[in-house]
Amino acid sequence: MAEPLVEIKDLHVEFEVRDGIIKGVDGFTLTINRGETLGVIGESGCGKSITAKAVMQMVPKPGKITDGEIIYYRRDKYNPQKPTRIVNITKLDPDGDEIRSIRGGEFAMIFQEPMSSLTPVYTTGTHIGEALSLHRLLPKTVGEHMAEQMMQYRPVTKQEAREISIEMLQKVGIPKPHERVDAYPHQLSGGQRQRVMIAIALSCQPFMLIADEPTTALDVSIEAQILDLMRELQESMEMSIMFITHNLGVVAEMAKEIVVMYMGKQVEKSDTVRVFYEPKHPYTRALLQSIPKVGKRSSERLASIKGMVPDPFHLPKGCVFHPRCPSFMPGKCDVLTPNWIEAEPDHWVRCLLYEGV
Ligand SMILES: Nc1ncnc2c1ncn2[C@@H]1O[C@H](COP(=O)(O)OP(=O)(O)OP(=O)(O)O)[C@@H](O)[C@H]1O
Ligand SMILES: [Mg+2]
Questions:
Q1: Which among 203, 209, 269, 316 is least buried, having the fewest CB atoms inside 10 angstroms?
Q2: pLDDT tens string 155-212
Q3: What's the CA-to-centroid distance between 158 and ligand 1, angstroms?
């Protein structure tokens, strides 16, 4: 049975800028279950990263969560006997103790911009070691017959932190990890920095990994290795993954379910196979047509979606996708706002074609 880890309910994030208010996330709803991978796809600017940052309670200024809830069913990582607590992330002080104990240890994020999250004066080993000392414990004594509830934990020692750092660097495919553990960010290539970020995120064995374009800067063999590592940790740890990407091939391989975003809202959600083979929303269909096909002549241009993403200050009336939609129904789509409906069991869509209007 699917058990929710995080429920995002009607999330709104707004940016107040000189010319007005930009709705970066505009009523986004989603459940992330324990141990499952959920893919998030959509064109640039549709709100994927801002949603992810909201879950971490790290919305960048001048952005603000203006409405909605992010409910986290919080378990004690080292004491599963303790009852699960219900935490509303949006209500936590972004600099407070509670979110800081969740961030890094229980929710980890691989950012789209790896450099911004590494401190230039710290070595890779220091970065990973710091995360470990804050968020990871090791079993005190491991007796063969010890019942699990008797397990006691202690902090990681400096020497162990170094050993785990080297092991993690090796797992993410950094060459000569014994040397690279002492390297500074500027001594690493872009792809290596991204792998260090991944090593930091995974070192504390989080309940949820938010991976925002995690493998964009990597070549395909390293990418495959990282994806395998994520899956391995997912199985051993029951880790959930929110996988944000423009690479539909990768998302098809990783995700059990896919949610499609447009202009800050979810417009379609179902299991991966159905989203790929029986997409319902005209926007999803258009997105899928933009995937390059094997065998297609390389001189042929990729299909891109007709028209442009609307100006955030002048959003279209009715369905925000209607000016670009091949199935546009005049007098309906430009007037009525589509609802989020279950068009068939476990297949959700926000489109008037399925509302019988
Ligand atoms: N610092 C900011 N100031 C003003 N508006 C912002 C800011 N950051 C994001 N936004 C707005 O929020 C929207 C969503 O941004 P977000 O970064 O979540 O997009 P995304 O889906 O991650 O895109 P990409 O695929 O390019 O990474 C943007 O279209 C933009 O209008
Ligand atoms: Mg982004």
A1: 316
A2: 999 999 999 999 999 999 899 999 999 999 999 988 888 889 999 999 989 999 999 9
A3: 39
